[in-house]
Design brief:
Layout lengths: L7 H66 L9 H17 L10 E4 L7 E6 L4 E4 L7 H9 L3
Antiparallel strand pairs: 1-2, 2-3
């Protein structure tokens, strides 16, 4: 009695079909794996983007908070330009620098003054003397000086 796979031709066909089935399954597996890797990469990309956005928002919030604190604590008004007021301003500046994690945020404090029809003058707070002393305009503030002097014409 002959078995269905007894002939060489039949065996060859079965082996060929089995090989074809294995190749098809491998191809299907490759497609599924490619899609999974794509989905994983997309999820990772979204997570990294979300983390970067959260970090940027946190940094922006920290900067905004510190600049607001600088503005509120280091305001210069007419009283601060007087000797007693300048000493109080110096104390506030020293306290802010000692408490702030970003003490280098404020390098100098300047006050520009432009009386009518006169070029603007500049005063810088001198911590050594606790006073605002007249100083030459630094190159960094040239646009501010031009705007102030341009308004007098």
């Amino acid at each position: 009695m002959k078995t269905p796979f007894s002939s060489a031709a039949a065996r060859s066909r079965v082996e060929g079909l089995a090989l074809l089935a294995v190749a098809a399954l491998l191809g299907l597996l490759a497609v599924v794996q490619h899609r999974w890797l794509g989905a994983i990469a997309e999820a990772e990309r979204r997570d990294l983007k979300e983390q970067a956005n959260e970090k940027a928002a946190s940094i922006a919030q920290d900067i905004d908070r510190e600049l607001t604190r600088v503005y509120l604590e280091l305001r210069v008004d007419a009283k601060a330009l007087e000797p007693a007021g300048a000493a109080a301003f110096g104390a506030r500046l020293a306290q802010w620098r000692s408490e702030s994690p970003h003490e280098g945020l404020v390098r100098d404090v300047f006050v520009a003054d432009r009386p009518a029809s006169v070029p603007a003058t500049l005063r810088r707070f001198d911590p050594a003397t606790s006073s605002f002393v007249e100083t030459p305009w630094p190159a960094d503030l040239a646009p501010v000086r031009a705007a102030l002097d341009g308004g007098s014409e």
